[in-house]
Amino acid sequence: MPAAVYHTAVLLKETVDALLMKPDGVYVDATFGGGGHSREMLSRLGSAGRLLAFDQDPEARKNLPDDARLTFIASNFRYLESYLRVYKAERVDGILADLGVSSHQLDAPERGFTYRVESPLDMRMGPGIPTTAAQVLNTASLADLTGIFKNYGEVKLAYRLAQRIVDRRAESPFERSTDLRPMVKGLCPPDGESRLSAQVFQALRIHVNDELGALRDFLQGAAASLKNGGRVSVISYHSLEDRLVKHFFRSGNFLDASTTDLYGKPLRPLNPVNRQAIVPGPDELAENPRSRSAKLRIAEKA
Prior knowledge:
Blueprint: H1 3-6, H2 12-17, E1 26-29, H3 36-43, E2 50-54, E3 70-73, H4 80-86, E4 92-98, H5 103-107, H6 133-139, H7 142-153, H8 158-169, H9 177-180, H10 193-208, H11 211-225, E5 226-236, H12 239-251, E6 270-272, H13 282-287, E7 295-301
Parallel strand pairs: 1-2, 1-4, 2-3, 4-5
Antiparallel strand pairs: 5-7, 6-7
Helix pairs in contact: 4-11, 7-8, 7-10, 11-12
């Protein structure tokens, strides 16, 4: 499948520009996907430059360009620091991450990422993830389900939804998206059912793939792996991700608990480059409506 069909890279120029790339530098695309960001990065590298690209989805391999400067690492980006040691790139000049689910993943029914089509309740990003969304729905306790929907989907009536699921699975197990979609009916006005369904599916996907835990590991690994003056660009798509990125860039931790040295200088590994998140402009929104929730934050190694 051509990369252009697989996924349209979001905030392409802004994200890569922010890295201030050097032709002979060493860079990381932590979320290769369709390869759009990687191709742009390669176009700015000279013959001595190097790009390491991560993706845990086996489908991403189909989009690899034939370029000797590119090393593909079939892994979750949470293991960034470990793999960079393996590939003798302990300190890099820049790191990019696009946290969104690719258009290909959303549009492939067998992946089960969207409520819009009939599909199996899978939602796993890669083969190493042991538990499907269906298994979570069929085995998690009422309290755990409530927490998943409340914490990862920001669902207001999380307990009622979880109770419905527990009652429904006592009659027959959840297997497909069509089993889950009716659970939201009556929990909100009819015109809000699509939004609520999206929140429910997002919550399950985040839980199944431990996305927020992986993001925390990645941000800490990125800070440790950058050279002094190196930069990291991160595109997030919902408030849970953006909050973690913003807090870590600003405070060096995920609680946003600022600390300073004796002279009042912030103690953090990275310095934010942009105070306000960069968002897509009108032209990009018209061309790619799925970019509407994207927020780009940039930080530099202190």
